[in-house]
């Protein structure tokens, strides 16, 4: 390579003639003596102070000892980490900087676990500068600082902003309703966590004599749980605010209680309506207006708008209370004789349209309203029972509860 008329400004040695593409990636000759041209060092002086990699002396990583979240920037980020080696690699990757003049950069890292909270990251780099292959090795220690994130701190401190109370009108919620309400709450929180909401959690779930109490982290979660519970079981929601404190800006902070009131009757209940002489009703749905079928005829029943899901009635029993008894004879299209399951005497009862005239036995319920034939879900296929085990009297009739 021929010498140019330029000299290294540091050592005074003549500069070899270099193309601009060697010097700065552009075509054309580079002449440092020309006004406005960048001053360029010779290779010897250039590499004397050349830093391939800029690396910090140490990296501190803050992790939550409870949930595995990592503090990044100015907030906690959920990563679910158990082994923090991958986290250390990510932090080192973001902290290292390679000189802009290096081309064809390749690198690898080998972590060395020193103790529970210290990882040495051995980083190996290769590249090309001014046509010369270069390589460098750096070691960056990563210190793991185990702390408690804001979310886990709130959970540990029993923090909550909302209470959801599950109650039922005139009765105690069933085990199925209590268990399902818990599932709904956990699902709501899980869905919000999946969107990145770190403020979503359940502080406490406790069963009481009247039903279920749930303390949750935000009013938004409480409202969602209450509304979804009513969507599934029917009923109503009332909310009440209580002033608990003021925040650092002087704004009032309220705690909201959502009182869920489930309907007095559930699918499968057999009720006797007041001032009604058409016979007991087998409840199918309590969403909106109460709906069901008559135990005397099998005809559809729906409460009026004013009655809603709680018409004046008394509960006679449940489908599960029915006992099998023998069919004596079918008298006509409106009546059938069966044996009284207590006296074993033949008794004429109403014949609902769900009665099978070829059946030898039928389930009956004896109550203060008399003896009535109840629907018999198919024990082999379960085609007439819903997922909760309740009979669906409209399943084979194309009708809906809406």
Number of domains: 4
Number of strands: 25
Number of helices: 6
Query: Rough shape?
Result: elongated
Highest CATH level, the class of the largest domain: Alpha Beta
Distance between the termini: 91 Å
Tell me the Rg in angstroms. 39 Å
Oligomeric composition of the shown chains: single chain
Helix content class? 10-25%
Extract low-pLDDT stretches.
Answer: 20-37, 379-402
Supply the CATH architecture of the largest domain: 2-Layer Sandwich
Strand content: 35-45%
Structural class: alpha+beta
Integer average pLDDT:
82
CATH names the topology of the largest domain as Alpha-Beta Plaits
Largest sheet: 5 strands, mixed
Strand line-up in the sheet with most strands: 12-13-11-15-14
Features:
single chain; 402 residues; alpha+beta; Alpha-Beta Plaits; 4 domains; five-stranded mixed sheet; five-stranded antiparallel sheet; 6 helices; elongated; disordered C terminus
Describe the structure.
16% of the residues lie in helices and 40% in strands. With 402 residues, the protein is of the alpha+beta class. The strands form 7 sheets. The chain has a 5-stranded mixed β-sheet, covered by helices on one side. It has a 5-stranded antiparallel β-sheet with strand order 19-18-17-16-20, with no helix packed on it. A 5-stranded antiparallel β-sheet has the order 23-22-21-24-25, with no helix packed on it. It starts with a strand and ends in a 29-residue tail after the last strand.
């Amino acid at each position: 390579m021929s010498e140019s008329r330029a000299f290294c400004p540091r050592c005074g040695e003549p500069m070899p003639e270099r193309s601009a593409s060697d010097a700065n990636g552009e075509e054309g000759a580079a002449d440092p003596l020309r006004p406005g041209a960048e001053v360029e060092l010779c290779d010897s002086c250039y590499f004397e102070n050349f830093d391939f990699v800029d690396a910090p002396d140490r990296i501190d990583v803050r992790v939550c000892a409870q949930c595995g979240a990592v503090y990044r920037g100015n907030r906690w980020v959920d990563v679910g980490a158990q082994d923090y080696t991958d986290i250390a690699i990510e932090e080192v990757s973001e902290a290292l900087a390679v000189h802009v003049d290096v081309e064809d950069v390749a690198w690898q890292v080998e972590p060395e676990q020193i103790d529970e909270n210290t990882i040495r990251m051995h980083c190996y780099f290769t590249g090309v500068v001014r046509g010369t292959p270069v390589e460098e090795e750096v070691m960056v220690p990563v210190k793991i600082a185990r702390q408690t994130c804001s979310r886990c701190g709130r959970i540990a401190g029993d923090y909550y902003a909302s209470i959801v109370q599950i109650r039922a009108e005139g009765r105690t919620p069933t085990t199925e309703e209590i268990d399902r309400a818990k599932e709904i709450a956990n699902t709501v929180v899980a869905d919000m966590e999946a969107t990145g909401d770190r403020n979503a959690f359940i502080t406490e779930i406790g069963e009481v004599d009247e039903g279920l109490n749930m303390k949750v982290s935000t009013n938004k979660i409480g409202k969602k749980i209450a509304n979804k519970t009513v969507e599934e079981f029917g009923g109503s929601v009332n909310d009440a605010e209580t002033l608990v404190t003021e925040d650092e800006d002087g704004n009032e902070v309220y705690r909201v209680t959502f009182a869920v009131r489930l309907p007095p009757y559930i699918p499968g209940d057999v009720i006797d309506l007041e001032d009604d002489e058409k016979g007991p009703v087998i409840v199918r749905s309590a969403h909106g207006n109460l709906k069901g079928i008559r135990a005397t005829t099998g005809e559809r029943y729906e409460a009026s708008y004013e009655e809603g899901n709680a018409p004046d009635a008394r509960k006679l029993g449940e489908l599960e209370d029915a006992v099998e008894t023998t069919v004596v004879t079918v008298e006509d299209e409106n009546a059938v004789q069966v044996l009284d399951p207590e006296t074993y005497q033949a008794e004429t009862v109403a014949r609902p349209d769900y009665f099978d005239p070829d059946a030898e036995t039928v389930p009956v319920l004896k109550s203060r309203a008399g003896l009535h034939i109840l629907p018999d879900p198919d024990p082999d296929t379960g085609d007439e029972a819903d997922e909760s085990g309740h009979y669906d009297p409209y399943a084979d009739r194309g009708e809906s509860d809406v």
